[in-house]
Amino acid sequence: MGTDQIRRWESGALAHGVTDPFGQGPLPWLRGADTYVEGSGPDTAGTVMPWYVDLGAPGQQLLPGARQDRDSGSVGAPRNSDDVDCQIKGFASAGVVRPGGSVDLRVTVDPPREFTVDVYRIGHYGGAGAHHMTSGPGVSGLKQPPPLVAGRTVSCHHWWLSWRLQIPAHWQPGAYVAVLTTIDNRHRSHIPFTVRDDHPADLLLLLPDVTWQAYNLFPEDGHTGASLYHAWDGDGRLLGEQDAAVTVSFDRPYAGAGLPLHVGHAYDFVRWAERYGYDLAYATATDLHAGAVDPTRYRGLVFPGHDEYWSVPMRRAAERARAAGTSLVFLSANTMYWRVELAPSPAGEPDRLVSCRKRRRPGPGVPFQGPAGARSALWRDAGEPEQQLLGIQYAGRVPEPAPLIVRNAHHWLWEGTGLREEEPVPGLVAGEADHYYPRVALPDHTERILLAHSPYRDTAGIRRHHETSLYQAPSGAWVFASGTFAWSPALGRPGHTDERVQRATANLLDRICEHG
């Protein structure tokens, strides 16, 4: 496969062992304009669109107010950088920073030229979806050395510092994105990072950065890139899981546009929750692993997106939180499936390498992971099925979206939604699905209920069932698991929003956040 054939996720997302039918979601990087022109050119009519539409994501539709424009000369520039030419790519040397601190950006630009940095905070902001926080000065860009490759592990920890972003003390905690744009306005890329502080809050939102990195195939160039799912052979063919990386590094850009696969799921929840005034603190899965946050300080922990890869310290922290009365809210599917280890980078920075042997036998360069005799790095093969924490566990892929079928419609979670027993919610079972396994032990509980029981066809055409679960632990903590990829997008993604899912989620969070 020639490098000219490689496009964003033409290899990665379509060949991954998971299908995300929602894409990354809308992005507000317009560099001073409220609209941009999509698909314009000498032979096509351009469409002037608000930023809050991503035509690349299935199911997206024009928002009210979008109009056709045949006279625009714009061609939709700047374009996203790719991993073949790496016109502009970068990463943050630390994924989390405190107000008053700084984050180092390491950027490569080819050919070398100046670039600008615009920083956005994700949130509702009256429907804007993000707020422009600051612009950096023109930064001299250089072409950094090629990534270092050890086995299948790709790292750019040796790149020179390009710019140090100082975080003002008044900036709110949250999910941030630095948008990199070449000075000629032809190419751009993105660097996500998180601002975290220790202020008390009702809910702690945990961004799944470990899972994001597991899926990162950078550089998606047909030669050197690798994730925990794929790598390339010498002829540019994409290899499967058995030949993929065992260890991946945080010290590299994300493939393609520079944003993680599945990142939109987390952003969907952030925008909705901030719109309705929920009291949020922010952290990452790596913070949970490192003990950088005390989860027992909060009324609830929210895991808003696809969160498949968990270390032992991450799971133990969630279990301690539940035992202390902190509720757990899992808004996706296939959570806590693989058991991973985190280790320092070659430069000594802690928790910058993620390792998972998956189904390979331990040996040189392959960590053992799990108790003696464990067949794989699956939590369920280590004697700790996910269901013992979540109440349900991963069942498989959902190749075509299916309706969620409501069960126990009298329950308080469905109150005010107008949903009736066995009423379908179209398209709400999508991507991947979880299921209750009768032969797997359940967590200790004082109350337990299944809130949906939804048939769908798997990739082999076999009829299977999805479930949504809620139970209350003896500590009083609630544990909710949606069991589907589609829950967070239904909170506010254009083309996917469902007010009934919004109300059910509000019922859950309101009960968790009750003061008294």
Write the topology of this structure:
Elements: H1 12-15, E1 35-38, E2 46-50, E3 67-69, E4 79-80, E5 88-92, E6 96-97, E7 102-109, E8 115-122, E9 130-135, E10 148-150, E11 153-155, E12 163-166, E13 174-182, E14 187-195, E15 203-207, H2 209-214, E16 231-232, E17 238-239, E18 247-249, H3 263-275, E19 280-284, H4 285-290, E20 300-303, E21 309-311, H5 312-323, E22 327-330, E23 338-343, E24 353-355, H6 387-390, E25 393-405, E26 424-435, E27 447-457, E28 463-472, E29 478-481, H7 499-512
Parallel strand pairs: 4-14, 6-14, 15-19, 15-20, 20-22, 21-23, 22-29
Antiparallel strand pairs: 1-2, 2-3, 5-7, 7-12, 8-9, 8-13, 10-11, 13-14, 16-17, 18-24, 23-24, 25-26, 27-28, 28-29
